[in-house]
Amino acid sequence: MKTCIVTSDYFVQGETFINRHIEHMFGGDTCILCGRFNGKDPLGKPLFERRAPLSVADRLRAPLAMGWNALVEGTGRLPFGDNARALETWLRAERVEVILAEFGTQALVVAQVANRMGLPVFSYFRGTDASRALRSAQRVRSYKRMMPRLDGVFSVSQFLLDNLARHGVSHPNAHVVPSGVDIRRFTPGPKRPGSFLAVGRMVEKKAPRVTLRAFAAAARGREAHLTFIGDGPLLDPCRALARDLGVADQVTFAGALPHDAVRAALAETEIFLQHSVTARDGNTEGLPTAIQEALSAGCIPVSTWHAGIPEAVEDGVNGLLVPEWDEAAFADRIARLLDMSDRGQMTEAARRTAIAKFDNAVLLDKVETILRDTVAAWS
Questions:
Q1: pLDDT digits (tens, 9 = 90+) for 326-364
Q2: Do 3-180+359-378 and 195-357 have matching folds?
Q3: Residue 24 has pLDDT above 70, yes or no
Q4: Who contacts 292 (Cβ-Cβ below 8 Å, separation ≥6)?
Q5: Is the dihedral of CA 353, 355, 360, 366 positive or negative?
Q6: What pLDDT, on the 0 to 100 scale, is given for residue 161?
Q7: What is the helix (H) or strand (E) element at residue 47, kind and residue range?
Q8: Cα(22)–Cα(124) distance, rounded to whole angstroms?
Q9: In CATH, which superfamily holds the domain spanning 3-180+359-378?
Q10: Nearest to 211 by CA among 321, 330, 324
Q11: Cα 142 from chain centroid?
Q12: CATH number at 195-357
C-alpha cells in the first residue's frame, strides 16, 4: 500500500525510526513529503520538499494565507495556493493510498490536504510534539481541530497519549506502538565488568551532569568506567566537571558516533545510564530508543520515572528507576549494581523484555495492519 511519510527534515541520520518506516513500510512502497531536504537521499525515494521556494503568486498570497491559517487553524504552515496544488498533483502522481505524518506537528501540515483528496491520514506522536508543544494554547487548539480530520493516531508510549488527553486532545483510533529496535542486530556480547554507558545529546533533558556526579559519588576509585556518547552544549562543561570531581580517568567523552559504533558499545556494556528529566520548557521523552536498544543489548538500565521509560524498565527486574533529579538515589542504584556479585539475571531480563516488547519487525507489522484495516474500513 503506497504510503507517504511526512517528516520535517530529510534525511536525518539520527531519526532511525522515521528512516526505518521510509525504507521498510509495506516493503518500501513509500514516498516522502518533507519540510526541508538536505540533499542526501540514501534511500532513493520520490520526494516533495514543502518549503521549496514559493512561486511569485504564492509570495504575494503568503501574508494573508499564513495569517488566516494561523488565526483559524492554529498554524501558519499549511500549504496554500500554487504550493498546495503542486503537492496534490504530486500525491496523485505517486498514487499515494495513505499518509503517515511522523510527529503531530507534521500532521497539522497535511491533514486538510489529505481530507480534500480523500486520503486516509495518520499521525505518530513521539515526544516533544506531545509534551513541550502542549505548553502553547495555540498548539492545543490546533491539535483539537486536527484530531477529527485524522483516521488514527500512533504514539510511542501511553504516557504521551495520556498527556494529550489531559489537554483535551484524543482520538478513538489511538494505538501505542514504540519505535522498537532491531533485536537481531542489537544483541548482547561479552560484557566488560564495571562498564557504564550513556548515549544521547548532552542537553538538559538528558541531565548528563546529574549522571556524571552520581557516577562519581558511587564509583570513584572503584573498578568502573563510564563512556558518554553524544555531543551538545553540555559536553565541554561535563568534561570540566569530570576533572573537578576527580574521575577524569574513569570517564570517556566519545562525542557523537555512528549508529554502528553505538551498537558495538552497547554489546559490551553492563550498565546503561539515562537520567531523563522534564526540561524547563516542558519537553519530555516519549519512550527513548536508546533505552530500547540498551535492553536489547542486555544492558541494565538505570533511569528515571519519566515519560514512557517505566513502560520499558521494570524497577528491580530488568533495571532500576529513581525520581527525576534525585541524584543521591541515582548514585545509590549505581553503587547497588557495582556491589552485586552477579548481574546476569538482570541482563537476561533486559534482553527478554526487548524480544517481547520492542522487536521492530513485529511493531512495523502492527502499524501496517492498523493502517491496512483502517483503510479497508473506508471501502
A1: 999 999 999 999 999 899 999 999 999 999 999 999 999
A2: yes
A3: yes
A4: 178, 179, 180, 181, 312, 354, 358
A5: negative
A6: 98
A7: strand 47-49
A8: 14
A9: Glycogen Phosphorylase B; (3.40.50.2000)
A10: 330
A11: 22
A12: 3.40.50.2000
